[in-house]
Amino acid sequence: MTARADEDVKVRRIQPGDDAAMERIIRDCLIEFGANRSGCAWDDDLSRFSALYSAPDTAYWVAERGGRVIAGVGIGGGARHPVCGRVCELQKMYCVPEARGTGVAQRLLDTALDFAFRRYDCVYLETFANMLAARRFYARNGFCEIGESLLSTGHSACDVKMARKKGAVAQPHRSNGSSI
């Protein structure tokens, strides 16, 4: 795609009619990266995001182009961490292949981080080592790889954990397992 993401993409909260489209996008991406297995995000909840993300301090957004949902991201409720304070999770950020590299993911992430940092002190995420482009994207946006889980997510197969504290700025990618 050559069009700039901000010219023809609408970012909005998920609605019940978007659930099936987001489920398909996520399942296709999980298959693409070999993450369609136990311990990953492959679960029955993928079909009901509009209901799951209606709880306080949670939200899910979709990016829509020409009436078609092409990407999404969520902020899941969190917990207190003794070092980090209130922690939430960046969840289920996926784009259709043709939306990657167009700025759509950046718009979604900016929306999610704005929401998160009005409520939480730290944003945590889990991903996979083979999702290199995603890891570089998160690093450019101030996330650092960390050696420990900050939340109990149930995604035991995710082998990369990353976090960003409120006020952090973009920094070089670090993969040494350092703490935040």
Distance between the termini: 36 Å
How would you characterize the largest beta sheet?
7 strands, mixed
CATH architecture of the domain at 5-123: 3-Layer(aba) Sandwich
Helices and strands: which structural class? alpha+beta
CATH superfamily grouping of the domain at 5-123: Gcn5-related N-acetyltransferase (GNAT)
Share of β-strand residues: 25-35%
The largest beta-sheet arranges its strands as 1-2-3-4-5-7-6
Task: Describe the overall structure.
The protein is an alpha+beta fold. The protein has a domain at about 5-125: Gcn5-related N-acetyltransferase (GNAT) (Aminopeptidase, 3-Layer(aba) Sandwich), CATH 3.40.630.30. The chain is about 25% helix and about 30% strand. The protein is built from 5 helices and 7 strands. The relative contact order is 0.16. Residues about 170-180 have low confidence and may be disordered.
